[in-house]
Amino acid sequence: MTDMSIHEECGVFGVISEKPTDVAHLCYYGLYALQHRGQESCGIVVNDDGLFVSHKDIGVVGEVFSKDALMSLPSGTMAVAHTRYGTTGATNRNNCQPIEVNHQKGKMAIAHNGNLSNAAELRSALELSGAIFHTSSDTETIAYIVTKERLTAPSIEDAVSRAMNVLDGAYSLVLMSPQKLICARDPYGFRPLCYGKTADGVYVVASESCAIKAVGAEFIRDVEPGEILIFNQKEVISRREHCGTKKRKLCIFEYIYFARPDSVIDGRSVHAARVSAGAVLARENPADADIVIGVPDSGLDAALGYSRASGIPYGIGLIKNKYIGRTFIAPGNRLDQVRIKLSAVEEVVKNKRIVLIDDSIVRGTTSGRIVSLLRDAGAKEIHMRVSAPPFLHPCFYGTDIDSRENLIACHHSVSEIAKIIGADSLGFLPTEKLGELAGNRDYCSACFDGCYPTKIPTDTRKNRFEQRLSERAK
Question: Which residue is catalytic, options 10, 42, 251, 447?
Fold first, then answer.
């Protein structure tokens, strides 16, 4: 990713075992595998015979879950876990998930990936009915609605099903009651969700299949859009009353950037999707060059595809500092960040005509710095190719794109962008070719083409409480 204003989704994980076991450590390994989906905060809630014990904090998994922190969590039969990048709500401890709720019918812990397109409308109605919110996350809105429905519903899964009648937008949920683990995916299937089983009979639910493998479980299948799965210690029950009520709309950016390349989403390999994107780029935007290189990490697969389709040799021209995560903050000028995170391999790029592949351009500033980095290493020509179309529209389903004013493609032509970033030429993936990434499956590409599957929200502020405070300060 060449710009720091677009961020990952969240990652959810759940475990249920027939016998008490160290479910916290399984969640820990699962969250590590999903760390790429969010680095702001993380948390685990363990169900120890109906007693919920949790640990949540701001930071990445390795920082939040020290050895002592993990040891403080008891063995149990169930657990839910979450790693967060907040597209709605501020980064603070209150917004850490999973969210825990105590209500008249019992307890609940819930973890959520996605964004509700009608969150502001639902929250306003709840507040007018007397609800008091403790976070600025729309996950709490989901928790309120499920809890409200549970007061009259015969079971927690019935409450979830009723809640899905009013929730709109993107939500992949993992929810835990004292007796059951439940997962649900919105009827559009915007965000991925899947489950598997270990050799000793432990069921695991995760945002991506890479996390299923990470804990030694065998992948069973994806959760269908609109499907609710109820896990108890002995079986898995599927409820499908919401399946088929909407057209499938998996976020195409899962294939382009969000997901790990070793994951398989809705039957489509993420690695294969990115290689396919590179091949499309080679056909649609050819270049006369000596070598193809990718920007680590998500540009590498597409670079391989471009190389194979064009016949231009593939090389490693940029090295990423593996000890610096995506949350790195430079103490001084932002200009230092690219050179700290990336370095050019001079022997590979010097005096070469380069095809540079990356997954997107947002503002263009970081792209320009990478081009400059290669120029300084002696690159003769730089032909940048992007394995996504230009960003032209905000996203209301979890991708952190909420302002057209900061999107360079909204204000400049392709040739103008090339000049701004210092590239000799520039080419984007055509919007009409996105289907080749998804393996001809249905997908959402609203951030590129403006075709929104749901009603566009009237209140698009990320955190209206913070906005009120800033307005008072003026």
Answer: 10
